[in-house]
From TrEMBL:
A Pfam family recorded for this sequence: SSB
InterPro entries cross-referenced by the UniProt entry: NA-bd_OB-fold, Primosome_PriB/ssb
SUPFAM superfamilies linked to this entry: Nucleic acid-binding proteins
Protein name, as recorded: Single-stranded DNA-binding protein
Residue ranges, annotated region (Disordered): 122-197
Signal peptide span: none
């Protein structure tokens, strides 16, 4: 029997992600945190929808999930989050504050409220993005289905033509859109840099 509280939350990002790095240059660990609001609704006897009180969570994640979440998520995005819930308490000077914390195992956009595109990213063990072609598996067009005959064999049966390959920039979003800069909207804090004092 487990005493852990695993949750899936449907909510909206209340802040842009904050991405930090800890450790030395050889072994840096990415850490991302952001706030998420979720508001449940219920229908009254008269048939009207009423919003309940908004519940806030601090979401935290590490490693490649942190890097990808910081790159993909923006304040106001509808999200689905899965993770383990805990609570953190601290003294604010005016009393003890308790915060709901969700240690994430999975993050995604809520497709009930919009659409998104997936872009696979290859990273090394330190979280650095690998260049195209480095340790990437064979493309689907060069792979064969197990048990299928190759195109040149006598057993090959005629079938539908292979789909045309996608252009190289199919998954790339424009670097700049009207009124937006190419700078990432998330905040990067490098905790390995010590202040001199």
């Amino acid at each position: 029997m487990t005493h852990q509280l695993d949750l899936t939350i449907q909510g909206t990002l209340g802040t842009n992600p904050v991405l930090t790095f800890s450790g030395n240059d050889e072994r840096r660990l990415a850490y991302c945190r952001f706030r998420v609001a979720t508001t449940t609704r219920h229908r009254t006897r008269s048939g009207q929808w009423v919003d309940d009180a908004t519940m806030w969570f601090t979401a935290k994640c590490w490693g490649s999930l942190a890097l990808n979440a910081a790159e993909a998520l923006r304040k106001g995005d509808p999200v689905l989050l899965a993770g383990r819930m805990t609570q953190e308490a601290w003294d604010s000077g005016k009393g003890v504050i308790i915060t709901n914390v969700l240690s994430l195992t999975a993050v995604g956009h809520d497709l009930n409220r919009g659409y998104t595109r997936f872009a696979r990213v290859r990273r090394d063990e330190n979280g650095n993005e690998l260049p195209d072609g480095a340790t990437t598996p064979a493309s689907p067009s060069s792979a064969t289905t197990p048990g299928a005959a190759s195109a040149g064999s006598a057993d090959a049966a005629p079938g539908p033509a292979a789909p045309a390959p996608l252009p190289a920039d199919h998954w790339e979003a424009p670097a700049e859109q009207a009124g937006q800069s190419a700078e990432p909207p998330y905040v990067v804090v490098d905790e390995s840099v010590q202040e001199e004092g």
